[in-house]
Inverse folding.
């Protein structure tokens, strides 16, 4: 139902999936959003949503739907200096990127399958060299330990 690569995000499908996972009644969603069942179904069909509605759904379903977009930016946005904020801005500044387990697995899979080298990952995704090498060390060790455990 969902695209694990996050290349194309259909937010309504993710919301519907989360409602099902939480086994939440449609009436509860309607009451929380102060809307009809038909409007909730329109949300499920929507590829895009108003950020206020998305924030409410994130709270109700206890899932950060905004992170889907953040991860998309990490994986697919061009890495250029023009993408970063200028030093003089009143917008909030974030100290570091958030790399989820899925992002790390995606990157390590690209490397292990031979699709990309660590240097290509560092350049194309603008991930610090030490971060990539730490992932390679840590998850190689975890994988070895798991294999030994299964023997």
């Amino acid at each position: 139902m969902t695209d694990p690569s996050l290349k194309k995000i259909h937010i309504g499908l993710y919301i519907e999936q989360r409602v099902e996972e939480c086994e939440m009644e449609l009436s509860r969603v309607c009451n929380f959003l102060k809307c009809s069942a038909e409007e909730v179904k329109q949300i499920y069909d929507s590829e895009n949503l108003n950020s206020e509605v998305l924030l409410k759904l994130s709270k109700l379903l206890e899932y950060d739907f905004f992170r889907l977009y953040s991860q998309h930016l990490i994986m697919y946005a061009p890495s250029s200096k023009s993408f970063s904020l200028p030093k003089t801005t009143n917008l909030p500044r974030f100290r570091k990127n958030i790399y989820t387990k899925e992002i790390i697995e995606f990157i390590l899979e690209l490397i292990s399958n031979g699709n990309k080298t660590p240097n290509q990952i560092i350049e194309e995704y603008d991930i610090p060299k030490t971060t990539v090498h730490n992932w390679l060390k840590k998850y190689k060790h975890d994988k070895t330990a798991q294999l030994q455990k299964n023997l």
In short: Residues 129-150 form the longest helix (22 residues). The two ends are 35 Å apart (CA to CA). Residues 94-150 form one domain. The CA atoms of residues 74 and 125 lie 7 Å apart.
